[in-house]
Amino acid sequence: xxxxxxxxxxxxxxxxxxxxxxxxxxxxxxxxxxxxxxxxxxxxxxxxxxxxxxxxxxxxxxxxxxxxxxxxxxxxxxxxxxxxxxxxxxxxxxxxxxxxxxxxxxxxxxxxxxxxxxxxxxxxxxxxxxxxxxxxxxxxxxxxxxxxxxxxxxxxxxxxxxxxxxxxxxxxxxxxxxxxxxxxxxxxxxxxxxxxxxxxxxxxxxxxxxxxxxxxxxxxxxxxxxxxxxxxxxxxxxxxxxxxxxxxxxxxxx
Amino acid sequence: xxxxxxxxxxxxxxxxxxxxxxxxxxxxxxxxxxxxxxxxxxxxxxxxxxxxxxxxxxxxxxxxxxxxxxxxxxxxxxxxxxxxxxxxxxxxxxxxxxxxxxxxxxxxxxxxxxxxxxxxxxxxxxxxxxxxxxxxxxxxxxxxxxxxxxxxxxxxxxxxxxxxxx
Lengths: 254, 166
Prior knowledge:
Chain A is mainly α. Chain A has ten helices and no strands.
């Protein structure tokens, strides 16, 4: 997350500033950090990040009641621009592969795969929406302090266990897990607990195991695979924390 | 199909539950998060369209025999290493990943190697990283998580060898 949005997130947690201007008295700029944001902000480096301005340095007349202001404007979000380098890589791979399939199997091979994948896409779409909504709700209702206490850098083994348990019970596919993990990061979970959550979702989560692994791989393999995987999320989270404090001794860089 | 239906019900039930909590916090909280979630959805759909509609082609041109041939029970740690690499390189969704695993098992692949393959695929299949994880999460977190996950297919294979299962 960039500094600007962190400032804004922080500002939303604060109580309204008592000696701010009366409601409606200020001009077009509602924000406590008076920067013209694009409608949606990406979290990464891929957009021009305005220089962060410490709240304390701002002239008080711009400091509108913080939680009010947040309602009237788009909150800095966590989705990147629709087109990025990763999408270009996938796009090129898809184009090359489609060309190879076309050369090998002719146009019927191409349309066959296309039809199958289109129906798959149609089936996934509502779940993607559900995942995005779940992530947004969780980001909105989880109290920042509580999350950073139970899942933050100082949460210890308990934080990792909570993260792992959360990942294991989380319903849905990647369309749920990643928005929710991103929301957790945004509201104060550290890398370790979030890693435990993501790894637990991929390895122990029941969704994929029931829907795909059990029918394809068989019960015996699936159950043993899950049993063997049980300790891995917490270990991964612990390793993540161990490495994190050594790479970033002063916290995550901006 | 019924399993997916159950999962769908749990998924939308969870959405409804947290949505209700948000609503109890006040209509503006509900409105903000609804708008937020919908914007996320709109932003993410083009990527998913490209990935899901295109991934069939990528999977179709990967020769499965090459992946499964190297995972025999006598392949030992080299086989585990191969399996881990293959898991990371396997494109496509769960059907493809698990199918290759199942084919490898049927073709005489060693269980520890197949475990390593499935776990590596689950942890860092490149296509999922690019398609799902990077769009939703900070890129630094994604690479960090993938790097930290590297030892775990090997650890899982070691556990599988030690307990002699599955």
